[in-house]
Write a structure and sequence with these properties.
Helices cover 78% and strands 0% of the residues. By secondary structure, it is mostly helical. The longest helix has 27 residues.
């Protein structure tokens, strides 16, 4: 059975992958060790709520940066 934390991380992973990023990319952008994120996603360790929020914020920031880059490319 998937926990709420695992579901949140799965959603973040899926969102990142749709934008061409990996969960490792998101972890790096959030300043979180990718092995730690792996432990969270498997349910071995439960993260603080703030850590999941930081992961989501990093994912959003990567997506926004990608969109800005694509917009600049399309204007050239």
């Amino acid at each position: 059975m998937e926990t709420t934390t695992q579901a949140a991380i799965r959603t973040i992973r899926e969102k990142a992958e749709r934008s061409g990023f990996t969960l490792s990319d998101v972890a790096y952008a959030a300043g979180i060790d990718k092995a730690q994120v792996s432990r969270w996603s498997t349910g071995k360790v439960v993260p603080l709520y703030s850590a999941v929020i930081n992961l989501q914020a990093a994912c959003d920031a990567l997506m926004e940066a990608r969109l800005l880059m694509l917009q600049k490319e399309s204007q050239q």
